[in-house]
Design goal:
CATH architecture of one domain: 3-Layer(aba) Sandwich
Mean pLDDT: 91
Number of strands: 10
Structural class: alpha/beta
Strand order of the largest sheet: 6-7-8-3-9-10
Largest sheet: 6 strands, mixed
Low-confidence stretches: none
CATH topology of one domain: Rossmann fold
Length: 239
């Protein structure tokens, strides 16, 4: 469904991504794991067409992203780490705004909102302004906006940041269910998030892909099954 081939990206003289390649398909939940500054957010922004790439290629359903931007991005939902929301809008107004961008018919919008209100427990804040929401609700609204158009590829940067333990459980279940019909890619630096969600783990360090493995195999490889020790070994080697 999505293929990244020899992707490189630089800012000024700093090489942020260096020759990244992988393929991903429907039904997977892939965690991009790595220390701060590893290149996770930059890679996500490139896959969403937000940042142009310097070298390499990204294809979505065999279509080159740079040549078919609108068609490709209609299949993608993206939530950035900082969850940009308009503080003066209510949740419902914001969702309607997103729906207009996708030229979504009213009946489809109503159907999707019923689904999102149930799955993400947004009922109680639908008429609240964004400026009044807790960080946890802001994250849930951000996830809702990313999947409003029912994308085949869902890309979420640090989706559970700011959520309490109960909210994390709800969101994780939702993402596991959503991945039955889509590809879900999340970034995190939290090993607990990787263990709770991932079917596959891609580890980045210093802009390079240093590990691409199923979670089960990664666990087997870890000393005494402790992912933290394996993560330290892999990322320390790139220092």
């Amino acid at each position: 469904m999505i293929e990244v081939s020899n992707l490189s990206k630089s800012f000024d003289l700093k090489n942020v991504l260096k020759d990244i390649s992988f393929k991903a398909k429907t039904g997977e939940i892939i965690t991009l794991l790595g220390p701060n500054g590893a290149g996770k957010t930059t890679l996500m922004r490139c896959m969403c067409g937000y940042l142009p790439i310097d070298r390499g290629n990204i294809t979505i359903d065999n279509l080159p992203l740079n040549e078919n931007l609108v068609q490709c991005l209609s299949k993608v939902g993206y939530m950035p780490e900082n969850t940009p929301l308009y503080p003066e809008m209510t949740v419902l107004e914001y969702m309607r705004f997103i729906a207009e961008i996708y030229q979504m018919p009213k009946d489809i919008f109503d159907e999707r909102m019923t689904y999102l209100q149930e799955k993400l427990s947004l009922d109680e804040v639908m008429f609240n302004k964004m400026s009044t929401l807790s960080k946890g609700f802001r994250r849930r609204v951000g996830v809702g906006a990313a999947i409003l158009h029912n994308p085949q590829i869902l890309i979420l940067d640090e989706p559970t940041e700011g959520l309490d333990p109960n909210q994390k459980i709800v969101l994780r279940k939702f993402l596991r269910d959503y991945a039955k019909k889509a590809l879900v890619i999340i970034s995190t630096h939290l090993l607990e998030e990787t263990e709770a969600l991932s079917s596959r783990v891609i580890i980045l360090n210093n802009g390079r892909l240093i590990k691409d493995s199923s979670f089960a195999n990664l666990k087997k490889e870890a000393p005494k099954g402790e992912l933290s020790k394996l993560f330290y070994q892999l990322t320390k080697e790139g220092d």
